[in-house]
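Fold it.
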Amino acid sequence: MLYILEQYFITFGWAITGAISMAIALGILVKVFSLITPIDEWVEIKNGNIGVAIIIASVIIGTALVIGLTVMP
């Protein structure tokens, strides 16, 4: 019983580690992506530009997949 509880705590620790690292990395990614592109993505998204919204979403999802697979034990 103690072994199972220990494994649950280890799994919970990895989940917290993954969530924190993904949040930090995605925040940095979006900031860097906004700096290197010539347009202001957030203004374009507010104006209803679906193409820019799809590009931002695909960048975030792609990076989240890479980070998630990297953090996974």
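The radius of gyration is 17 Å.
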